[in-house]
UniProtKB/TrEMBL annotation:
CDD domains: lytB_ispH. Catalyzes the conversion of 1-hydroxy-2-methyl-2-(E)-butenyl 4-diphosphate (HMBPP) into a mixture of isopentenyl diphosphate (IPP) and dimethylallyl diphosphate (DMAPP). Acts in the terminal step of the DOXP/MEP pathway for isoprenoid precursor biosynthesis. It catalyses: isopentenyl diphosphate + 2 oxidized [2Fe-2S]-[ferredoxin] + H2O = (2E)-4-hydroxy-3-methylbut-2-enyl diphosphate + 2 reduced [2Fe-2S]-[ferredoxin] + 2 H(+); dimethylallyl diphosphate + 2 oxidized [2Fe-2S]-[ferredoxin] + H2O = (2E)-4-hydroxy-3-methylbut-2-enyl diphosphate + 2 reduced [2Fe-2S]-[ferredoxin] + 2 H(+). This is 4-hydroxy-3-methylbut-2-enyl diphosphate reductase. It comes from Bradyrhizobium sediminis. [4Fe-4S] cluster binds at C12, C96, C194. Keywords: 4Fe-4S, Iron, Iron-sulfur, Isoprene biosynthesis, Metal-binding, Oxidoreductase.
């Protein structure tokens, strides 16, 4: 069976940085280090860090006094930062710099008196963080229907920002609907969309032209992994989201001559290897990596982890 690997796939620079922050904190301060929310949405990553001494909590009230605390890559609301400050917790912030950029854009728009619209998924930690970072009300829209349902007057000065794990392709219809609905609307430059999200989605579209089945390696609570699976399905290729090789169902491959594999931004390459191994147990495979966009973005670590 032919196996094609999408390129790029898997870890983005924000995820690499977030994991490294926890690892370096464990080395520098010793375990335990507390992490608020899954550092990135992947069980394998979370379990490996747990084994090294990280303790994951959903609420800061679970963190003992003075314990080193890491905020996850998704970002947090100001109320969480304030709670940490009041409790005197030493915090390392692993929020992806691209998420922070969205927070700052939102704050700028609001300071200019615009009504802020956030395009994103309700309940996602990044959306909760962004809504809680800007000093004022935010209107969340998840789709074109939500735009139609807005009751604001057409001449309201509006600005929009987007969840980073949505791509240009995901948001363009919603943005067009907003632009059609409001006469005075501003949004960020297209270049501000997360490069990793866009690249992984373009790569899965390229992959879909060659294969009969797409396997997306990622977690069910990973927004960008779900989106990769949806794109495969939208373009007519049977697509499945699996955590690792153990979830591979041989039935899916019955009539397949070529299988494509990609991985969400929070899924490590070791899990892609695990899926390839699972395919090998079904029959002989020939693995090729597709050509794709080179990524060489790196984000700096917090200064306290790099100094001496
Ligand atoms: S997907 Fe984009 S925004 Fe999210 S962590 Fe990765 S680089 Fe940052």
């Amino acid at each position: 069976m032919e196996v094609y690997l999408a390129q790029p796939r898997g870890f983005c620079a924000g995820v690499v940085r977030a994991i490294e922050i926890v690892e370096r904190a464990l080395e520098k301060y010793g375990p335990p280090v507390y992490v608020r929310h899954e550092i990135v949405h992947n069980k394998y990553v979370v379990e490996s860090l747990k084994n090294k001494g990280a303790i994951f909590v959903e609420d800061l009230s679970e963190v003992p006094p003075l314990s080193v605390t890491v905020f996850s890559a998704h970002g947090v609301a100001r109320s969480v930062e304030e709670e940490a400050a009041v409790r005197g917790l030493p915090v390392l912030n692993a929020t992806c710099p691209l998420v922070t950029k969205v927070h700052n854009q939102g704050k700028r728009y609001m300071s200019k008196g615009r009504v802020l619209v956030l395009i994103g998924h309700a309940g996602h930690p990044e959306v909760e963080g962004t809504m809680g970072q800007v000093p004022g009300p935010v209107t969340l829209v998840q789709n074109v229907d939500d735009v139609a349902a807005l009751t604001l007057p057409a001449d309201t000065p509006v600005a929009y920002i987007t969840q980073t794990t949505l791509s240009v392709d995901d948001t363009k219809d919603i943005i067009s609907a907003l632009q059609a609905r409001f006469t005075d609307i501003q949004g960020p430059d297209i270049r501000d969309i997360c490069y990793a999200t866009q690249n992984r989605q373009s790569a899965v579209r390229d992959l879909s032209k060659l294969v009969d089945v797409i396997l997306v390696v990622g977690a069910t609570n990973s927004s960008n992994s779900n989106r990769l699976r949806e794109i495969g399905t939208e373009v007519g290729v049977a697509s499945y989201l699996i955590a690792d090789g153990s979830e591979l169902n041989p039935e899916w491959l019955k009539d397949a001559k070529a299988v494509g594999i990609t991985a969400g931004a929070s899924a490590p390459e070791v899990l892609v290897d695990d899926v390839i191994e699972a395919l090998r147990r079904i029959g002989p495979v020939k693995v090729s990596v597709l050509p794709g966009r080179e990524e060489n973005i790196e984000f700096r670590l917090p200064a306290e982890l790099t100094a001496g």
